[in-house]
Amino acid sequence: MRLLALAVFVLAVSAVGGVILYRNSGQEAAVDGAATVQRIAQGKAIYMDHCASCHGAALEGQANWRSRKPDGRLPAPPHDPSGHTWHHPDQMLFVMTKFGPQATAGPGYESDMPGFEGVLSDQEIIDVLTYIKSTWPEEIQQEQARRTKLSRQNAS
């Protein structure tokens, strides 16, 4: 049940020429390993409109993001190298963004972060993730890519 969204969201992952495809009800969205400047710019604009109010304009997250608030929820984490976003494979980041953190953490997990299904298209979510990843140092990008590849292999 930990990856409930993967049961609901049929995730077919294919590594062909550096492209990962997510399929949902016949719709596909691609993550290009060699992100274009246009995709990064689009992702940044979408991030500023939908994510920066909580995660920070500089991807810095909210203060004390590792300490629970009085309501038991965690503040928004940073997406810069100081955070844990890069510890997660692409598939998990996508599902978490589309369906909300409870989709990967399991039922009963409470978070202030909504899912963006119906708000952002699959490609827009991927563009945001592409922008975030583009801000990380090369060694962190490589480590996150390694984790994504390992996750895909384990899912096979």
Automatic annotation (TrEMBL):
Stored InterPro entries: Cyt_c-like_dom, Cyt_c-like_dom_sf, Cyt_C_IC, Cytochrome_c-type_DH
Keywords linked to the UniProt accession: Electron transport, Heme, Iron, Metal-binding, Respiratory chain, Transport
One Pfam family from the record: Cytochrom_C
Location of region: Disordered: 66-87
Gene3D superfamilies from the UniProt entry: Cytochrome c-like domain
Cofactors, names only: heme c
Record's protein name: Cytochrome c
